[in-house]
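hey all, quick one before standup. I had two proteins in the batch that finished overnight and I want to keep them in one place so we stop losing track of which output belongs to which input. First protein below, input sequence then structure tokens straight from the run.
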Amino acid sequence: MNKILLIVIGLVVVVGAFLVIRNTSNQQGTQPQTESNPAQILQENPPITVSLDESGFTPKDITVKAGSRVIWINKSGKAATVSSDDHPTHQIYPRINLGEFGDSSSVQLVFDETGIYGYHNHLDASQTGTVTVE
């Protein structure tokens, strides 16, 4: 009888330890959904897509909420850039200096600060656009 009681107690301890470890693992892998959580911001603000073709950026001027992701897709048939104004120094908002990207590829940026951000294609500075972040 004592052996059976010891076996039952041992099983309860092992199962209890397993449940505690499992619950702790699940809590560590979960991020709380708060206003500062980028995953929640992206759910509330779906990505905005801007295309670049031979004639320039479309739409040329966009307005987004803070925390929105803007994706630029290159459909121009050649390499391009998304670069901050002023041309050629690109110093007004350096975060938007996304570098060169080839045809059929994309670059993206999450705008987390309100403001008005002018940009252009450094390889063809006549192609310009503006992101207004509210």
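OK second protein, same deal, sequence then tokens:
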Amino acid sequence: MNQIHVSRRSFVSGLGTAAVAPYIIPIGALGKGRPAPSARIQLGVIGFGTMAGDNIGNFLNNDKVQVVSVADPVSETGCHGYSSDPNRKGGRLAGKRIIDEFYAKQLNQPGYKACTTHVDFREMIEKEKLDAVLISTPDHWHGLQTVYAASKGLHIYGQKPMSYCIAEGRYMADTVKANQVTFQVGSQQRSDNYFRMACEFIRNGVIGKLEKIEVGLPGGHFRWKKSDADFSQEPAPIPEWMTDFNLWLGPAQKRPYIPALHRNMTWRNNLDYSGGAITDWGAHHLDIVQWALGKDDSGPVAIENLKSDMPSRDKILNTAAHYSFEVVYEEGTRVFVSDAFTNGITFYGEGGKKIFVTRGNLETTPAELIRTKLDDKSVRLYKSARHEGNFIDCIYGGEPTICTCEIGHRSISIAHLANIGLRLGRNKIQWNPKTECFVNDPEADKLKASPMFNGWVLKA
């Protein structure tokens, strides 16, 4: 099986890795586990696209880390994503260039080579003496790569959405726990002061009894490129930059290369690879809802009033572009989710009090509510100044990260539940967060897991 056995064919050749500070020894030299204070974490990057490009600076600028290798079946191509920079690139060669140039400048050694490259992540893990990996690949790969890395004893920073389906998320969380590795979900809003402050206000009753929550997520289908040719739904020749298209597809069903699905982040428009905007942004905002409600180890009991324009499963763009649904918790708290709302989270309390939080903004009604001071007896939440830094610190100390694999699984499960309900055309689905099963609904239970193709198996 692909997931169990590492290929024994010749490994891809790469340049040797050298530490930036030779007097700091790598963890790999000491054996796996928690590092000594003098150890430098050897980090490998699996998938170098939009999000890895965002994360890499905080790892490169951390003197406890040495980024040593990049694995990606893409060589180098445009990587526009959220960036307005037309020159931004993705792929293993783009990642290597960024990493090499950073260390060359830091050491004042032009031409310094710090980073190796691999097409296959398994080859990178087998060959390089890694201590940790950053997983920033299309969503349908997250489970396989997490389980593989955890079974090798590697610590993992895994981008969101953490899992591709509910059953996969549970297996990931159990495998990470069993191997006692540090895991950080890339839900970086937990390391943002505004989101933490909003959650602390809710936990401490600053707006009185919580009456309802509204969550605004984006609508439409992702389209980063403006050219119609770049968004064509017709099969096209595999481009040169796609070194191994079969590896890119991995556990997804076989299909020809289609520009509308297989470049930049447009793959999020198809259920073979992702869950659309509901899982993409839901992974962020629904995670904050869980945090505010103290539900990190639990979840809702129902998803109700589901409405969407969900296309048929056989369409190329088959994720919901417009949608609304209500998330219901056991104590009666109701969360209204819609692409018609402003992007962000609004908490409604008593007497017209409310809190709105989104990236870069926190507003309260009345305005002076934002100046509320919490005393020593108040509930205070986990504080992280930098998400990547928190991951590294927890590798050294052995403490849980601010967004563990279990937390990430519980949060993204809500988005998966909504997509299941929408796919089934249901007005309501009931969920047991303790057993993680639907209530008397075998048809829905079948959708907790997704089939894997091409010989891939999710097994440690």
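Flagging for whoever picks this up: The two ends are 11 Å apart (CA to CA). The chain has three domains: 27-188, 190-221+275-375+405-448, 229-267.
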